[in-house]
Give the backbone structure.
Amino acid sequence: MDELPDGWKRWNEGERKLVWAYRPDVFDGGAFPPPCLPTIYVTQGRRSRRPGTDRDPDPDTPWYVTLFLEPEVERDAEQFPDRERAVAGARGLATRFAGGEIDYRALYQVPRESYFAELDELTGRDR
């Protein structure tokens, strides 16, 4: 896990959770607000926003890989049987995202055309 795909930075790493951020140099509050920072979460068990629900999972609890474009805009999580496969899945997702292969427009109920245009440029979808 030394090298991440182009544009991705290790944001957080723990025993049961990894967070990768895409182009934090761009999503810094200038052109894009920080909540629009694309992130990939790799978690053992489903990621929960409720306090007190992140207790130690059973060792057989599956791992999930989720792409977030904003706090309430996410791609359906992919499930993996163990951390190693989840990290490999996250790496593949990150590579596809950075290469413009993920249709992030489909994840939005309300289009944000100027944001999409910039994201297209960053990921090469405009080519």
